[in-house]
Amino acid sequence: GNSVTQMEGPVTLSEEAFLTINCTYTATGYPSLFWYVQYPGEGLQLLLKATKADDKGSNKGFEATYRKETTSFHLEKGSVQVSDSAVYFCALERSNDYKLSFGAGTTVTVRA
Amino acid sequence: EAGVAQSPRYKIIEKRQSVAFWCNPISGHATLYWYQQILGQGPKLLIQFQNNGVVDDSQLPKDRFSAERLKGVDSTLKIQPAKLEDSAVYLCASSPMAGIRETQYFGPGTRLLVL
To answer: What is the pLDDT of residues A95-105, one digit of tens each?
Structure first.
């Protein structure tokens, strides 16, 4: 089946620290991969996506590369800010019906 | 452009009571989704509409959950009667079309607590 496993949180960092959140997936076919972010009190927002192997998605200083050989899509940011405090969800979009499967989410707190 | 609207934002009920959630998608979006997000888990799809027709309700517990989108615009999700395990955030999302790769836009969610 299709599933996503992401690093458990919570993760607490200081401002300007390096952030990485691991995500691995199991899928049939060729899924698209996403990172969604949920800021406090808000809905999920698409952060970045990659639709095929070796694609790199990037947005707001965050990056993730679609690695087919390791079935991974790890999220990274070189220097986090307090405003990056949120819950981050890794997700895959099935290639046959385009439905989304989400990971459990990783809570990130950045301290000033 | 206005986003996906949901109400209420919070609801507390006792078990065996009924509750309804409302969603108004982004104008012009044909596809509407309801997700259930239990604490500590990712969102799980409950039902998907294309205009006013149901595309997928395979994960909807039909003995107690129902949803409708009568005019192909806003939608209501109902739980009757509620159980303790229904405590979760109910997310509504919309996208322009279904069956192709389209970004889903999510509302803020309704947080339900069943006591």
So the answer is: 777 788 999 99
Record the tokens describing residue A71, joined without a space: 């079935």
**Arithmetic mean of pLDDT over chain A:** 93
Q: What's the longest Cα–Cα distance across chain B?
A: 40
Instruction: Name which of B104, B105, B110, B111 to mutate to probe chain A: the one with the most chain A Cβ atoms within 10 A of its Cβ.
Output: B104
Residue A43 confidence (pLDDT): 84
Phi, psi of B26 (to 5 degrees): -65, 140
> Residue B90 carries which DSSP code?
E
Contact between A62 and A79 under an 8 Å Cβ cutoff? The reply is: no
State how beta strands B110-114 and B10-13 pair: parallel
Selection from B63, B75, B66 nearest residue B29 by Cα: B75
Chain B residues in contact with A49 (beta carbon < 8 A): 103
Give the rounded distance of the alpha carbon of A37 from its chain centre. Answer: 8
Report the residue of chain A nearest B103, measured CA to CA: A46
- Identify the CA nearest to A71 among candidates A104, A28, A39: A28
